[in-house]
Design goal:
heterodimer; A: alpha/beta; D-Maltodextrin-Binding Protein, domain 2; 4 domains; 16 strands; 9% strand; globular; B: Rossmann fold; 2 domains; six-stranded mixed β-sheet; 21 strands; elongated
């Protein structure tokens, strides 16, 4: 008996020494110091070795989901609760049900860890929104919205100007408290589907719009503006999270209080709650020790370390009894705030709410949509983005059609074959020729033919969570009939096509006219510093276009952009570039024109220099003015050189993804998206509808094919 | 001058309007009634520090065919471009019928020009090329068609009207370039070495056509060439230029027979006139290794000029030397000798045997000696028969 227990003990210690627990996190700075210190305490206490690994945040999630199923992952890791359902589905996390003591944590933080009735992990810290008061301007915390409005009325002073409130109102994360406060539910209780068109939603939007209309709230607020307004005493109150404390100047006296209660409903404005949890891997070989480590990190000493030096808001209730916490006005304040917060749903449905809500919110704030109609707008966008799965199509007719098409093509080629002649006679060195051609042929096959066929095939499938189903032409018919939204809405293929054509036409026109004008100026051989100008004008072309795009995006910024700076210096109103279609489109066009004219200039310059000077002299003697010479001599003689560049420029511009994506990003509401960027969004930002996106790509292909056939017909006789 | 220019411009405008409204019979007619004279006064032109035309005064009479000739770089083409308005003068005036053209751009000068390269518009058909200048002057379409057809007929281009220039031969292009000027009926025709890009046979043919054209149209033409044969055959008067200076102007034969200086003397005539330094010694002129009987009252140091055509290889003569080269042209030929006085070219009869390396003698055929001042700048004496 004694011998056995000694043996068991030996084995256990041997096992411990051989395999330390692995803990992965994405912390930096004070938070990283806190976790290191906590782990050291744990090892000192239990003798269990822990190996810490700090993983960059961007790669963290994908690293976890790929490493854990292959037993290469950590035993314990720290992650935000929003991903719980995904982790649960991929079976990378083990439940903590039964082990976790609910009474030790703030209730909402435990609620956040629930997936289908099971709890996963241990809550460590939380993030949510609170009301920051400048105590010199607002000594008493408003408890109801009526109080709040009075305080706003009192503190708002257009002459300074000072605003009662500042927060990034266009962001749905910051609007959510109002949605819940006015009694709206984001999801249907029975179906779990997102709902937008509700009275509560309309009231919440109307309330915020009212704040803005009465001047309590500045327009188009960004995070940076909130910071400067609050620090300069030009915003009496701010809605923000714990991260904001780091941005407040020392001199500003402030308090953090829960958001007020809506007088009308009696419900508090309930913000979203994000919880960081210590999660145990489903594949750990030491589940006991791993659970023990995760729990240890969430309680007691570890919590104290998280408060200091970590500066996190702890989820453990006991932490708020610590004198250190009670003396810290920031952290202690968040306990009350968190009690009212609603855990951000970890459902897939939640991911589908952001884009429609953003659309509705911006529409209301910019005065384009009435609050009552905004819910419908969001609902329509939601329905459009989350297409119903088209019914499965029978495969046989498509297979027959494919075979017939291929056979028809083969027959057509056969009837068009050249005169009968033995292959070996026609190509006496076929073997050598094939050897020379094969590397290029293989390259073309692998890089072009396979992706092309793959892409076309994909357009006949519907993708949902990793599963593909054959739907025939449903993707195409949905696109072409703009099913689910009107033709005039930005989501419609036809609307986007019109925008794309306008985009291409305006750009190419500007590229050619500016390029040609500059080429004519540069052609003059007597121009001084000609070489310098030429190099300078080619520079925009030489800089990678995404860098240029980001530079211009910065210059178009409403508040800090150079262009609005220039406008203000000239005494003009600054333009909010990305809130209207016309200005957002113009911003895209300006950026792309900057990028596009050098090419046309170089082509024009080359072509201009090949026109003999004596043609102009002859025309001058014939009686032609400069303008007539340009119109009757220069333009017709440039045409052969310029036309292929124009056609090429059209194709490039038609598919100019970078500029649209980086400069306007499709704002407002996707109206400035062109076909390629729209296809990208369907594939990667809207529920991974790869088949739908592939159908877009096929349609783009046919549009461009038609365009090149048309231009070839137009230029054909000329070229011949 | 400006006072004079104004009424003239008004007249011209009136004239144009009258022409436009003219009856079809008038407008379709072949005659070109407007024959203008040109006067160049003190024309100077430099490119940077390089003077190209150094003060030229020249009168061109109405209906004249003036050929400007000279070696490359003598300023003749520049002068033509100045007349056309394609170059601005540094000093001087271009006057047409008394009107000052100097400040006017080419399109307002009512001149036509045929370029050395033809400068046909490559994207236009022959017909469009011909009609271009008329379209710009807003001539009614019916009249354009009539004039184009007329010019095409004159130049035998009627069957080529729909072709593009690149589908034409060199001679055809040349004719289109001329046609482009003819249809416009300008007051002055300018030609810039129009035949230099053609082969010899075509050049001879086109020369004939140009002469015919001048006779037919009767207009004032100014023609630039470096080819003395064109100058001699086409011109009513020839102007010889050298280094931006007008050397002499006059009818071709006058220039040939009575050149004003040694430059003109050597430039016209092929092979060039022989020149020797000589000194009067009694009734003879004595030079290095020769002594020649000559008339005239000229004394002292001179340049003595003898055309090769006026010399003959003979059994005896004042010049002797070794034959260095022979050009046989069949009926006769030229021998090129090295004499004590310098190189000498002399004609010889086809029947006389002359070979390279041979020592031969050369004698002048009668009274043929030209005398120039020692620096060559001034003619002192021409043979009496040629005065």
């Amino acid at each position: 008996m004694t011998r056995l227990s000694v043996l068991a003990l030996l084995m256990a210690t041997d096992g411990l020494a051989a395999e330390p627990l692995k803990l992965w996190h994405a912390y930096r700075g004070g938070e990283e110091q806190a976790i290191e210190a906590a782990v050291k305490r744990y090892t000192d206490k239990t003798g269990v070795q822990v190996e810490l690994l700090s993983v960059p945040y961007d790669a963290f999630s994908s690293k976890l989901t790929s490493a854990i199923p292959h037993d290469a992952g950590p035993d314990v890791f720290i992650f935000a609760h929003e991903r719980l359902r995904q982790f649960h589905r991929l079976k990378v996390i083990a439940p903590s049900t039964g082990r976790l003591d609910r009474s030790k944590y703030i209730k909402s933080t435990v609620d956040a860890l629930e997936v289908d009735g099971e709890l996963y992990g241990y809550p460590l810290s939380l993030k949510t929104l609170a009301l920051f008061l400048n105590t010199e301007l607002v000594p008493d915390a408003p408890t109801t919205t009526d109080d709040w409005l009075k305080a706003l009325e009192r503190t708002t002073d257009p002459s300074k100007p000072r605003f009662g409130l500042a927060y990034a109102a266009g962001d749905f994360y910051l609007h959510a408290p109002f949605v819940f406060g006015f009694g709206a539910k984001l999801f249907d209780d029975t179906t779990g589907r997102a709902t937008f068109d509700t009275p509560g939603m309309a009231k919440s939007l109307a309330f915020v719009k009212g704040l803005q209309d009465r001047g309590f709230l500045p327009q188009e607020v960004s995070g940076a503006l909130v910071k400067s307004l609050f620090n300069e005493g030009r915003a009496a109150m701010v809605i923000s999270g714990p991260w904001f404390t780091g941005e407040i100047d020392q001199a500003v006296k402030y308090r953090i209080v829960p958001l007020p209660t809506v007088t009308e409903t009696g419900l508090p404005l309930m913000p979203f709650l994000g919880v960081e949890a210590a999660l145990v891997s489903a594949r750990t070989r030491q589940p006991e020790q791993a659970q023990a480590l995760a729990e240890f990190l969430s309680l007691g000493e570890a919590t104290a370390l998280r408060v200091n030096p970590g500066r996190q808001i702890p989820a453990e209730l006991a932490a708020y009894e610590l004198t250190e916490v009670q003396q810290d006005p920031v952290i202690s304040a968040f306990k009350d705030v968190a009690a009212r917060a609603v855990p951000t749903p970890n459902t897939l449905e939640m991911a589908k709410v952001w884009e429609p809500m953003k659309l509705a919110l911006r529409g209301v704030l910019q005065g384009e949509v009435a609050p009552e109609a905004a819910g419908q707008l969001a609902e329509r966008r939601y329905r459009a983005l989350n297409r119903d799965r088209p019914p499965d199509a029978p495969k046989l007719p498509y297979a027959i059609a494919l075979v017939v098409a291929l056979a028809g093509f083969a027959f057509w080629r056969w009837t068009k074959r050249g005169p009968a002649q033995a292959f070996a006679r026609r190509y006496p060195e076929a073997a050598r020729g094939l050897a020379w051609v094969s590397p290029a042929a293989v390259g073309i096959f692998v890089l072009i033919v396979i992706p092309f066929v793959w892409g076309i095939s994909l357009a006949f499938f519907h993708h949902d969570a990793g599963e593909y189903s054959f739907v025939g032409l449903a993707n195409f018919t949905d696109i072409l009939t703009s099913k689910g939204y009107r033709v005039t809405e930005p989501l419609s293929f036809w609307f986007t096509l019109a925008v794309t054509i306008a985009w291409t036409f305006v750009n190419v026109t500007l590229h050619v006219s500016i390029g040609l004008a500059l080429a004519i100026l540069l052609k003059d051989p007597l121009l001084k510093l000609r070489g310098v100008y030429r190099v300078l004008l080619i520079v925009p072309w030489a800089v990678p276009n995404y860098i240029t795009a980001l530079m211009w995006k910065g210059m178009f910024h409403r508040q800090f952009g150079a262009i609005n700076g220039l406008l203000s210096a000239l005494g003009l109103e600054p333009v909010s570039w990305f809130t209207q279609f016309s200005t957002a489109f113009a911003a895209n066009v300006i950026t792309n024109t900057w990028l596009g004219f050098p090419f046309m200039m170089v082509v024009s310059l080359g072509a201009l220099q090949s026109i003999p000077q004596d043609l102009y002299e002859a025309a001058e003697v014939d009686g032609a003015s400069k303008w007539t010479q340009f119109r009757r001599i220069t333009l017709p003689l440039l045409k052969p050189a310029l036309l292929p560049s124009v056609i090429l420029g059209c194709v490039w511009t038609f598919n100019m993804f970078n500029i649209i994506y980086l400069v306007s990003g499709g704002e407002p509401g996707g109206a400035t998206d062109i076909l390629v960027s729209e296809a990208y969004r369907w594939a990667f930002q809207r529920n991974e509808q790869y088949g739908f996106a592939a159908a877009y790509a096929v349609l783009i292909f046919f549009v461009l094919l038609g365009w090149t056939r048309l231009t070839r017909r137009l230029t054909g006789p000329e070229a011949a | 001058m400006t006072v004079l220019a104004t009424p003239s411009a008004v007249n011209r405008g009136l004239e144009r309007r009258v022409r436009r409204k003219g009856t079809p019979a008038e407008t379709g007619s072949c005659t070109l009634p407007r024959v203008s004279g040109l006067r160049l006064v003190g024309i100077k032109k430099s490119y940077g520090d390089n003077p190209v035309v150094k003060g030229v005064d020249l009168d061109v009479a109405p209906g004249e065919f003036l050929v400007m000739v000279g070696p490359s770089g003598c300023g003749k083409t520049t002068l033509l471009r100045v007349i056309a308005g394609l170059e601005q003068v540094d000093a001087g005036q271009v006057l047409m019928d008394g009107q000052d053209l100097t400040p006017l751009p080419p399109r307002d000068r009512d001149v036509g020009m045929v370029f050395q390269s033809y400068a046909l518009y490559p994207h236009m058909s022959v017909k469009q090329n011909l009609a271009f200048g008329l379209e710009l002057r807003q001539v009614p379409p019916a009249e354009i068609d009539a004039r184009v057809a007329e010019a095409a007929k004159m130049l035998e281009l009627s069957h080529l009207l729909d072709r593009k220039p690149k589908a034409l031969s060199g001679g055809q292009r040349q004719r289109v370039a001329m046609g482009r000027v003819i249809v416009r009926r300008p007051r002055l025709f300018l030609f810039d070495e129009p035949l230099s890009n053609l082969d010899t046979a075509l050049r001879v043919q086109m020369r004939g056509e140009l002469a015919r054209l001048h006779r037919q149209l009767g207009v004032t033409m100014i023609y630039v060439t470096h080819d003395q044969v064109e100058a001699m055959t086409l011109a009513t008067r020839v102007a010889v230029f050298n280094k931006g200076v007008l050397q002499q102007v006059g009818p071709p034969l006058e220039l040939y027979h009575r050149p004003a200086n040694t430059f003109v003397a050597t430039f016209l005539g092929s092979p060039s006139m022989n020149l020797f330094e000589a000194r009067r010694d009694g009734s003879r002129f004595v030079g290095q290794g020769f002594a020649l009987e000559a008339r005239g009252e000229v004394t002292g140091e001179v340049k003595l000029g003898l055309r090769p055509q006026d010399l003959s290889v003979a059994a005896d003569g004042p010049f002797s030397g070794e034959v260095e080269a022979v050009e046989r042209l069949g009926f006769d030929g030229y021998a090129f000798l090295k004499t004590a006085a310098g190189p000498l070219a002399a004609r010889f009869d086809g029947s006389v045997p002359v070979d390279v390396g041979q020592q031969v003698k050369v004698k002048p055929l009668g009274d043929v000696v030209h005398l120039f001042s020692a620096d060559g700048a001034k003619a002192l004496w021409h043979p009496e028969a040629r005065r």
